[in-house]
Write the structure tokens for this entry.
Amino acid sequence: MTRIIADISVSLDGFVTGPDPGPDNGLGTGGEALHTWAFSDDPDDRRVLREATARSGAVVLGRHLFDVVDGPKGWDDKTGYGAGEVGKPAFVVVTSSPPESVRLTDLDWTFVTTGLPDAVTAARERAETASSDSGKDLDVVLMGGGATIGSAIDAGLVDALTLHLAPVVLGAGTPLFTGGAPRTLVQQSVTSTSTATHLTYDVLPVIR
């Protein structure tokens, strides 16, 4: 069964970028420390990254994150999706205005202009097709940015939340949570390494 999994790195004080993020400084000042684990040689870090990449049937991201990863200082052969792990799922971007062109033309991009729920639906369809083709269950991964994941959780679109808690205090930046309805999480797994604590939770639906 295809699940919707939000997956993001976060600082101890709750930020998913450092201060002043932008296309030329995607993770903000000091934000690179959030993703140290993704380039670690620790076998548990590598396993977490490998398993997340392998389960990705489609990936959802917001326009700001797209502008970073497709920008001139964005992804390349060494720093693409999965930080070097093999995998090129379909990518679905939530945006009000699709770009005229993309730099990363070897990736499968879909631009959805009708909102996050429609983007998640489109990604689920792509992931289910990929699951059928591969013969194994694949998921939709919401990789960010923070506003996209926060909005998806608030809208009840997320089945599971994976946080890679980096041992850094950024002091400012882009927060992961900025309010919204209370949510109950059920912890499913914890993996601690020298570079991060990897936490996975099931997100329970809100009972109205």
Remarks:
- The radius of gyration is 16 Å.
